[in-house]
Amino acid sequence: MKKLILATLAVVALTTQFASASQKKKVMIIGMDGVRSDALQAASTPNIDELIATGFYTYDSWHLGYTVSGPSWSAMFTGVWHQKNGVTDNSYAGSNFGQYPYYPHRAKEVKPNLYAVQIVDWAPMSTQVTNEGFDQKIVRTENDVTAVANAAITQLQNANLDAITVYFAKVDNMGHGSGFSPSNPIYMAAIHEVDSAIGRVMAALHARPNYANEDWLVLICTDHGGVGTSHGGNSDNERHIWWIGSGNNVSRKQLVALQDPGSYLMPANPVNPVLLAKTPVQSDIAVTAIHHLLSDDLDSAGFAQKRQQWDLDGKSWLDSLRTTSDPVDTSHPPTAIGKTNLPSMDIKVYPNPSSGWTSLWFDGGKGNKEVSCQVYDVTGKLVLQAGPSAMVSQYRMNVDLSPLPAGQYFVRIYADDKIATKPVILHHQ
To answer: For the segment 390-399, what is each residue's pLDDT rounded down to a tens digit?
Structure first.
């Protein structure tokens, strides 16, 4: 029987590999301007959460250069930092896109018939950039999240589309207007609004008539964080960002508590190549996208030669992203925890990963006066209970996980007649 099971698993793995290899490789890059890592974790983002649950991600990416939009997006889309692409501010003065072009241009050097589109609502990203390789560049009114999403949905109806960049400016503008902070409801509402738009865009992606025969890699990142109502400095709140890769053939993995690899602009904190090799950063977005688009044409050695020829700073995470068999779903609790007949509710665990105290944000009924929480390990063993107790504030309960060993757990929260269970990573500083 064991041999039969192993043989069956081998067939499944080979079938998955064949299906992935036979699907046409396509890329979507989604940019959210000005979203701090702690804000993303605290915000209501069910659509991004779904991409994270089925993807490869970290909340511990770090900015290595100028924490302003022009240089940040240039690094993300060219695969090189400001020393090469020449962009050091939002004027794009001194740009060197002739030598270091955007990712579609590079991909077209191998696949000239690729069809690529860019949609933005911050005009300089379009008007100040040349040699980018987009067949269409669409600019919408700034802060019009719906218009950006609608344009993306229209482009996704084109069967010939191979690469699409979708950019949202609103979160950054709300940060400038009222503050870059998870405690700012205006800023957080903007993140939620963009998340809703991303949900519509992803629905359009999945609705493509030939989607089953396509291998889409969706890469999501931000350009920088912020402090007060500005950014551009080297504080953690400006440099500490995040990085997501998702898709049907992407492994489900979180890179936890990655150390700051340093900055090209901080003499006291220079870039550490050992730490950088372990950390997904902005310049890796373009390189990973190009690698995916060309993976049918170039093997790993062939792509490595191209990367060297193009003098790219970023590294490809494609080999880490891709899976060749059905991944283990760590986003769901073990069956030993058991099911209940109670209706479910949405819950946000923040911070996650946690080093001890964790806040549970939820959408229980307005009449909630007490909540309780249970914490289980990965085997389904109950290891901690909290409550019933009064909420610290409406829709929130704080739980201290510090007595537990580092590892993965599942928190289950009860509020009135509702229930929710979510994973949480615990590490000790």
So the answer is: 554 556 777 8
